[in-house]
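User: Fold this; tokens only.

Assistant: Input:
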Amino acid sequence: MKFFASISEAFVQGGTWMWLILAVQVAATAIIIERVSFLYFRRKSNQRAFAAGFESLIRRGQLSEASQLAERELSQQPLASAVLNGLQAAMNLGGKDEIQGKMDEALLAENARIEKRTSFLPMLANVGTLTGLLGTVTGMITSFSAVGDKAGPEKTAVLSSGISEAMNATAYGLIMAIPTLIMYAILSNRASALSEDLNQAGLKIYNWLSFAYEPVEVRRAAARSKHRSATEKTVDNTIDA
């Protein structure tokens, strides 16, 4: 209880700037909690392993089966939407450029979700620090004004109040800023790892689709040619009979 009473007393002595730093700290804490939940619990760095499950299907030309697999994982795997876009472009015979464009569209959207809001953290840390320094300046102004304008016990009280405001505001600004900057570094590193994993997995899928694109088209043309030859042979046999 004594600890919390000391904190409450220091907060009051810090003046109005403490409330502004508190508001900045609440915003930074909300962003950190949301980002930790998204980057560590809703996104996992296993997209290259997930992409490996499509290799055999794509190389065998079973694009419909691969598309069905991607659709089933849309809500769980962030790579699934890029895979699905690439597969649909390949099945529509849109060419390598269309496959790449469709996959890049989905990958850019997912990368934006990974990096969302994290860049606000250093800005909020700086605002907290600068607000604390502003409290230091106003507290020192109050103290120096007391030296010249007040006398006796009132001078001592105003001088003490100004110094308390200056020191408490500075301390709270630093207390708010240091953990925020540490979490920014941790979250940025995690976001970079997830983006790298996602982009490398997307590149694997694109390469497989690019290499399999022509064989799939050739196989379809060969199948149509075979079917046409069989039909012509049947017609010839009918005429000969």
